[in-house]
Amino acid sequence: MRAVHISKVKGIAGSEQHLLMLLPGLAAHGVEVSMLVLEEADGSAGEFCEALAERGIPARRVPIRGHLDPALPGRLAAELRAARPDLVHTHLLHADLYGLPAARRAGVPHAISSRHNDNPFRRNPVLKLANRLAMRRADRVIAISHALADFVRGVEGIEPDKVVTIHYGLQPREYPPDVCETARAAWGIAPDAPLIGYFGRLIEQKGVDVLIEAFARVRREHGRARLVIVGDGDLRPALEEQARVAGVGDAVHFAGWVADAARLMPTCDVIAMPSRWEGFGLVALEAMSAARPLVASRVSALPEIVDDPATGRLVPPDDAGALAAALGDLLADPARAAAMGRAGRERLVQAFAVDTMVQATLDVYRSVVTAGRG
Q1: What is the pLDDT of residues 289-330, one digit of tens each?
Q2: Hey, which residues does 296 pair with through a beta bridge?
Q3: What residues make up the domain containing 92?
Q4: Each residue of 211-224: pLDDT tens digit?
Q5: CA-to-CA distance for 130 and 135, rounded, in angstroms?
Q6: CA 54, 281, 32, 59 torsion-angle sign
Q7: Distances (CA, A) of 172 to 175, 181, 309, 362
């Protein structure tokens, strides 16, 4: 079976990390897999393409000229005619809107779309109509969580029998024995200081402003507590100013973008994920791999991942008081926090295995191709 995946890429975030696990897994099961990477003029897909190459996955970069690019379906169709796949698998909005029509134009017999997020812009009536028209060409729509599957059916209006849920998977990793000492020294944080960690982009969706407000409250009870924010984004200057005004500027360390940031998670005592929405939230699995408890918003897919109170705590979104209380409780009881972290790592192994994700995707491929032959 030959499958071509299509996605617009700007760096490596959740969906890209997912592809870097899924595609090699499919290849190991005998699928001849390759990728068409939609790339803007800034060349921001370079790191992702290099990572694909390291894993032996062929990829071709296809330029995309803004959100509206009428010539893109033709360019993609030419690539697909040359590749002659049995199916096309699209990821994210641009690939859906341009890749699915291109697949039909190129005569590709089957198409699958993966939905990775319940972004508010997907509620826009014009986008909903365009997306629904594109989805007519998809045999299946894979949602990465049950919450997202409900969104796809209820908000986007996709036919229920097309939608299937396949959770992200993550392979538990081992960590260098000196990672905590090295990272804390680099950040200027004492080895025994209670440390809360945030890992992700600094954008409105992630609710880092709520975390900083909550941390200011935590410091009233835990005066030695520190917060490290690992990631970057447009909101960084505003967040730095918020921390200064809140009187915790000297206790919040902005680490910026760090390659393979998840390797640093064991440095923290608890991981915070105050998102306003999440299609899935791969950071949650990474925290579980690091055996760290997670305090996350009760939104979207996160209640499917965090087993409250066994592996972490769930709090209402945009509620700094509830977030502060949950973080403070875990900092006050290190033994309980450590036990929750260990339970989280075990839950990762049992419920979110990469092999399970790959096999479920392969089952969808086979069912679609077999039905077409019938």
Answers
A1: 999 999 999 999 999 999 999 999 999 999 999 999 999 999
A2: 273, 314
A3: 2-169+353-373
A4: 999 999 999 999 99
A5: 9
A6: negative
A7: 10, 21, 21, 22
